[in-house]
Specification:
Elements lengths: L4 E6 L2 E4 L10 H12 L3 E6 H4 L4 E5 L4 E4 L3 H11 L3 E5 L6 H14 L4 E5 L1 H15 L19 E3 L4 H13 L10 E6 L2 E4 L21 H7 L12 E4 L2 E2 L10 H5 L4 E2 L2 H15 L3 E4 L8 H14 L3 E7 L8 H10 L2 E9 L3 H8 L8 H11 L2 E8 L6 H12 L5 E6 L7 H9 L26 H22 L1 H4 L7 H4 L1 H4 L3
Parallel strand pairs: 1-3, 1-6, 6-7, 7-8, 11-14, 14-15, 15-16, 16-17, 17-18
Antiparallel strand pairs: 2-5, 4-5, 8-9, 9-10, 12-13
Helix pairs in contact: 1-6, 3-4, 9-10, 10-11, 11-13
Length: about 500
């Protein structure tokens, strides 16, 4: 069987000229690369945002939005020099889509015979909404997959793509027409007409190869040092995922749709094999676990902690974990995490109003459990970062203010007040579309962490709400800085031995 040349591209990043723009190697892309290499293909990973990090093009002067990454000519040069048979573009987030479509156009300008594949979370969720819209003509969703209405994109993949993409590349390179057998494949066969194959079965994570970090410019990411945890102990961070899936059904979240509601775990031995090898290869100083629910299974968590304690590196949970898992033994769990090197736990609190949690988010969380959880985590010796989301459809101005006040009185070490973004594939997105809740002039293309897209009760426009949320973040974190400056200012390990006993043991 003939083997091909596959270029995996991560698009330019839309960010803020005056803010912190997070960037890290994509685990999904590295897993796909590893699978393709395992099947004998010649693979190159290229992150256009990373390689063009210093190049910033102002796209919105008023809001200080910039596009970060390589120029069109630089991207075309990468494509020309590698001479791929296939270019696969990752669209992890919705605000990557514009750049991804531009890259698809550039690929065809270089060589129209190169096949272009789109994949990633956003694409999967766009298809979910397409199917929903077909079933509900009153949803205000389009009866076509807007993202695929271009001749520059030949295929798209939905669901877990590590195994299916190898099948697709084999078909493309060997010019066979076995597309009907490829799980999760989307092929556009005409204007607003598609063949959509059923998604693949959920992968056994222990059978996937190690992420292909050897194909990634890790030193480039380390140099920038803009990983997910603002209190990172090292700029040499290894991002790891131990599980996929989430049992919760929060209305703003795409995780259950993408990965399923049953949490699948890798064995500790499997995780150990990956982490131990890459810690040595890349001189890693910190582990960040990107699981959505790292604490849901205490048995698996404690097994992981046993290994991490022996490893002796600091670690954290930047993606967040639910507040009220294992309430009866929560103190024991947090202490075990801290003893094994966890310097910061992120708790996904979301709202300071029980009505919002129950009726708008569908989050199974009793507010009375939030403050005790924060106290237990701090007592164990961990920093506590908290997530809060403001601006749900149906949330009142008073409830928004209540959330800010509730958070600031929680005793947490830091806060992230985020503006709700209606992500495709979620119930909230479909509600926004059906009820036409967009601010005038705002679209999905404006989606960013600090952008308000949908109408919020008590505010006259998006700029007013954006200022409110920004002021809340500034006020909350200034309060913390004044209250405990030593705990607040931590950066890249300067005070690690002084502040955290698990790091003291390494000194």
């Amino acid at each position: 069987m003939k083997k091909g040349r596959v270029l995996l591209l991560t698009p330019n990043l839309k960010g803020m000229d005056d803010g912190v723009n997070r960037i890290q190697p994509s685990l999904g892309v590295m897993l796909i690369a590893a699978m393709l290499e395992q099947h004998g293909h010649n693979v190159k990973i290229h992150d256009t945002a990373l390689e063009g990090w210093e190049n910033r093009v102002l796209v919105d002067e008023k809001k200080k939005k910039v596009m970060i990454g390589q120029t069109d000519d630089q991207i075309k040069s990468v494509i020309s020099n590698f001479r791929p048979d296939v270019v696969a573009i990752s669209v992890l987030f919705s605000n990557f889509l514009t750049s991804a479509k531009n890259i698809a156009k550039l690929v065809k300008e270089v060589n129209k015979n190169i096949k272009v594949i789109l994949g990633g979370n956003h694409i999967s969720n766009a298809v979910i909404d397409y199917n929903f819209g077909v079933k509900d003509p009153n949803s205000n969703l389009p009866d076509y997959i807007e993202d695929l209405e271009t001749p520059n994109i030949d295929f798209a993949m939905i669901g877990e793509g590590e195994k299916p993409i190898t099948m697709l590349v084999d078909c493309i390179v060997n010019k066979t027409d076995n597309y009907s057998n490829i799980p999760g494949l989307i092929k556009r066969i005409g204007p607003k007409k598609y063949i959509i194959n059923p998604k693949s079965e959920k992968h056994d994570l222990n059978l996937l190869p190690r992420p292909a970090r050897h194909l990634v410019n890790m030193e480039g990411y380390f140099k920038i040092g803009a990983f997910q945890s603002a209190k990172a102990r090292s700029n040499r961070v290894l991002s790891v995922m131990c599980s996929r899936g989430c049992p919760e059904k929060c209305t703003f979240c795409t995780t259950p749709q993408m990965w399923g509601s049953n949490v699948r775990w890798r064995t500790t031995e499997n995780i150990k094999e990956e982490v131990s090898a890459d810690v040595k290869s890349f001189n890693i100083g910190e582990i960040q676990f990107l699981d959505d629910t790292l604490t849901v299974n205490k048995k698996n968590l404690f097994s992981l902690c046993d290994y991490l304690e022996k490893l002796g590196l600091p670690w954290c949970t930047p993606n967040g974990t639910k507040v009220n898992y294992h309430l009866r033994t929560q103190s024991e769990m947090y202490q075990r995490m801290a003893d094994s090197g966890c310097y910061q736990i992120t708790l996904a609190c979301e709202s300071g109003n029980q009505r919002v949690l129950d009726n708008l988010i569908n989050k199974r969380l009793d507010l009375e459990t939030v403050y005790p959880a924060i106290e237990r985590a701090k007592k164990a010796g961990m920093l506590v970062h908290t997530f809060w989301i403001l601006g749900y459809p149906g949330e009142t101005f008073e409830e928004i203010q209540n959330t800010v006040n509730f958070a600031m009185n929680s005793g947490a070490d830091s806060f992230g007040f985020a503006i709700l973004n209606p992500l495709p594939g979620t119930p909230i997105y479909r509600q926004v579309m059906k009820q036409k809740l967009w601010w005038n002039g705002r679209t999905m293309d404006d989606m960013m962490l600090r952008s308000s897209l949908i109408k919020v009760d008590g505010f006259n426009g998006p700029e007013e709400f954006e200022k409110f949320v920004n002021d809340a973040n500034v006020k909350a974190n200034l309060m913390l800085k004044e209250k405990d400056p030593d705990r607040f200012k931590y950066k890249y390990g300067e005070k690690a031995a002084e502040d955290h006993h698990h790091l003291q043991r390494q000194s």
